[in-house]
Specification:
Blueprint lengths: L1 H18 L7 H17 L2 H19 L4 H5 L2 E2 L2 E2 H16 L26 E6 L11 H16 L2 E5 L14 H12 L7 E4 L4 E3 L6 H8 L1 E3 L5 E3 L5 E5 L4 E9 L2 H11 L16 H14 L22 H4 L5 E3 L36 E3 L8 H16 L5 H10 L6 H4 L8
Parallel strand pairs: 3-4, 3-5, 9-11
Antiparallel strand pairs: 1-2, 5-10, 6-12, 7-8, 9-10
Helix pairs in contact: 2-3, 3-5, 3-10, 6-12, 7-9, 9-10
Length: 429
């Protein structure tokens, strides 16, 4: 009994020590970003507040992953109740801004580009790293991802840069850095005819609406008017990325093979020495580096360019221009369903996830381009496989197994069978 008492007492002392003297690493920075964001929100600067809240969230996340971090964050630290004061400000505000929606982004409403437009002068590639060894729980994903990329890239004449081998540039790093290293190697070392644009796409994202081209996205969301009334690609735009209902989501993005695009990726990738690269030490790694380089410079500008809302005003309107959004110049946000990908019902079913773009396919009266499944590996494997196979079947038309295809179609009227598997939609036949 004495041993049990002293062991429990030691555990309490350890937690107490971890939660004192400022708490886990990162909480102090999170507090600074959150307090600044709250102050800007009170002044009516909604976009600046959202960016500061995102930076606060990244530091909060890193702190939560440290030893006893989540336990500490249940307490009031730095004068902030993190699961009340912070979360109840950050998540509803992101939902109000809707920066994952076309209506709340400053793209010209008059610009129209056919979904299947293809510019033969553009050489475009799709890069995906599926680094799951044989025997790994997610190894089953490789064949599905590869088949999806082959079908899409072959249809539109894009370079298919799909690999299960980590790029040499990132061989000494955590595997997630490969999704940055691969496109960077293509831009820096492209042989023959170099690519003009490279899309980096998570292994667990799928093209579903095969009619949509990347050219149409580039002209629609990285374009500008010309004096003769047509669209051209804006020479000042070098990077396209999306937010979901909570903020920046770096799973899928498009980079231009320009000095600015190459320099940006090089800066995000950073040095290999941990003492010279703080992003290597952050739990979010490459995602944190993307956020820091895209958002942090804009929050250092003394006065936001956006027009301040009056206290008590209605929900924020769309920003007047890209400087108001506060991202690094040369970057454009693309609606979630057009680049990051819509989330299936399994990732949209909780109340706090309703601000995300949730899947809309033909059965729902829409035709979303890409589907992405956050935390796919946390789902039961049979459910994850069936869900991905149904989306893949929607995309390519046949999986080569009529009996299995009939079974998949019978599970649900929608390509998103998680609606039915979770009791959220009607069954089809």
């Amino acid at each position: 009994m004495l041993h049990a008492f002293t062991t429990a007492d030691l555990g309490k002392r350890t937690r107490s020590s971890a939660c004192s003297m400022g708490g886990p690493p990162g909480v102090g920075a999170a507090a600074v970003f959150f307090r600044l964001g709250r102050q800007y929100l009170q002044l009516g600067y909604s976009q600046r507040a959202a960016n500061l809240f995102q930076l606060a969230m990244s530091m909060f996340w890193d702190a939560s992953r440290s030893e006893h971090g989540m336990e500490c964050l249940q307490l009031e630290m730095w004068g902030i109740r993190w699961f009340e004061d912070f979360m109840e400000a950050y998540i509803p505000h992101a939902a109000r801004l809707q920066r994952n929606s076309l209506a709340m982004l400053p793209h010209q409403a008059s610009w129209e580009v056919p979904a299947g437009y293809r510019d033969p002068s553009l050489n475009i590639a799709v890069f995906s790293l599926c680094d799951y060894a044989p025997g790994a729980p997610m190894h089953w994903l490789l064949a599905r991802s590869q088949q999806n990329r082959q079908a899409y890239c072959g249809r539109h004449g894009y370079g298919m840069e799909w690999t299960s081998q980590r790029p040499a540039l990132s061989s000494s790093r955590h595997p997630v850095w490969g999704q940055l290293a691969g496109p960077l190697e293509l831009l820096l070392n492209g042989a023959g005819r170099p690519y003009d644009w490279v899309m980096s796409m998570d292994c667990d994202s799928l093209f579903v609406n095969m009619d949509v081209t990347l050219d149409s996205l580039i002209y629609r969301f990285a374009g500008r008017d010309t004096p003769w009334g047509s669209l051209e690609i804006d020479p000042e735009v070098h990077f396209l990325i999306s937010e979901d209902g909570r903020g920046l989501a770096g799973g899928n993005w498009i980079v231009r093979n320009s000095p600015e695009g190459r320099r940006f990726l090089t800066e995000v990738y950073g040095q290999d020495e941990p003492e010279r690269n703080p992003y290597l030490r952050h739990d979010l790694r490459d995602q944190f580096s993307l956020l820091w380089h895209l958002v942090r410079p804009g929050v250092s500008v003394p006065k936001p360019t956006e027009r301040a809302l009056q206290l008590g005003a209605a929900a924020p309107a769309a920003p007047a221009g890209w400087p108001d959004v506060g991202y690094t110049p040369g970057v454009r946000l693309v609606p979630q369903e057009m680049l990051l990908g819509s989330y299936p019902h399994v990732s949209c079913s909780n109340q706090g996830d309703r601000a995300h773009r949730c899947w809309q396919g033909a059965a729902e009266g829409g035709a979303d381009f890409i589907v992405s499944v956050p935390l796919l590996g946390s789902l039961p494997q049979d459910m994850a496989q069936a869900m991905l196979d149904r989306f893949l079947l929607e995309a390519v038309g046949s999986l080569g197994d009529p009996a299995y295809e009939q079974q998949l179609r019978g599970l649900c009227a929608s390509a998103d069978i998680s609606r039915c598997l979770m009791g959220g939609g009607g069954r089809g036949g």
